[in-house]
Design brief:
The protein has 322 residues and is mostly helical. The chain is 76% helix and 0% strand. The protein has one domain. The longest helix is centred in the N-terminal third of the chain and has 35 residues.
Length: 322
């Protein structure tokens, strides 16, 4: 048991490190943060609804970016290793397929969680930028965008002087500088004067982004299961289809589920992303309750467990060659 736990931790850590060393992981994370940061300037003719438009757009970047990241990471970590023979080399050791598969998902999940944390902080800062209608809080926006620039500069310096990997260092430093910017700015008001921490934040975005993060983890589980058999294009395509159908599940299948067997099966087989997408509640200025957060968390955990079980069954029958 102890040996299996050590193998699981080691493989999960290596998977996470390997994922954040992929250039697409850094590009996707930095791009989403920058796009969220410039939303207050890009969105014009908001008619005093800037905060609502920015928060909704930021959540959309979070969800779609997580879909792409999870799909790419799953294929880079699992599909490529199966085809290159790396998986066969690992499985030739006393490593069970269950441990190998679940550790791959755990490593990808770590990166997805870090991605969600970064975009949650970016969303909170971006919405703070337009906290007051028709004005911009430049302290918040500059700190958000500067954190990415400083992270890239520091990672470049480390790469030049110490030959440290650029992508992984830039990813970690982006999250670190973003956290520092978030803490520092929220002790100030729009004029740069001391203020109670978080007095200008829309804290309802925190549970909303948490729900999106849960949805992304489910998507990552689906991607890992598909990556045991399919390549990157097919995996991302199927995940995108599942994502779109799940968003429209209530409309397409929910109304006919009681009368049509196929609609019934599809309605309950597809993940209902509306459970993780609470924009309607935010638009009506309703807060996400802890009970709802817990209920959706249980739904996501059970669905994720089912998806991983199916993926594990598929992986057990995959032929790996050195």
């Amino acid at each position: 048991m102890r040996l299996r736990a050590n193998q699981y931790i080691a493989l999960a850590g290596l998977t996470a490190l390997e994922t954040i060393r992929q250039p697409i992981c850094l590009i996707l994370t930095a791009s989403c943060i920058v796009f969220i940061g410039i939303l207050p300037v890009v969105l014009t003719h908001s008619l005093g609804e800037s905060a609502r438009l920015v928060s909704h757009s930021a959540l959309a970047f979070h969800f779609v970016g997580g879909l792409i990241l999870g799909g790419y990471a799953a294929c880079a970590s699992l599909t490529h290793e199966i085809r290159r023979g790396t998986a066969a080399a690992v499985l030739s050791k006393p490593v069970e397929r269950t441990t190998f598969f679940l550790s791959k998902f755990a490593g990808i999940a770590m990166v997805v969680v870090l991605f969600s944390v970064a975009l949650t902080l970016a969303s909170l800062l971006s919405v703070r930028t337009v906290y007051d209608p028709y004005t911009l809080d430049l302290y918040s926006q500059v700190a958000l965008l500067a954190s990415v620039a400083l992270a890239f500069a520091a990672a470049g310096l480390l790469n030049y002087t110490l030959r440290r990997p650029f992508c992984s260092n830039a990813f970690v430093l982006t999250l670190a500088f973003l956290l520092v910017a978030f803490i520092s700015v929220n002790f100030l008001d729009a004029q740069g004067k001391p203020a109670p921490f978080g007095s200008r934040l829309d804290w309802d975005l925190l549970p909303a982004n948490t729900l999106v993060g849960m949805g992304i983890l489910v998507l990552a589980g689906i991607s890992v299961g598909l990556a045991t058999r399919l390549d990157m294009v097919a995996t991302l395509t199927i995940c995108s289809i599942v994502f779109l159908l799940g968003l429209m599940s209530d409309y397409l299948f929910g109304r006919a589920a009681d009368d049509n067997l196929i609609a019934f099966i599809l309605y309950y087989a597809l993940p209902n992303w509306q459970n993780f997408w609470v924009i309607d509640a935010l638009a009506e200025e309703k807060s996400v309750s802890a009970t709802y957060l817990l209920t959706v968390g249980q739904y996501g955990l059970l669905y994720l467990a089912g998806v991983l079980c199916l993926g594990l069954l598929a992986f057990k029958k995959v032929e790996v060659r050195a």
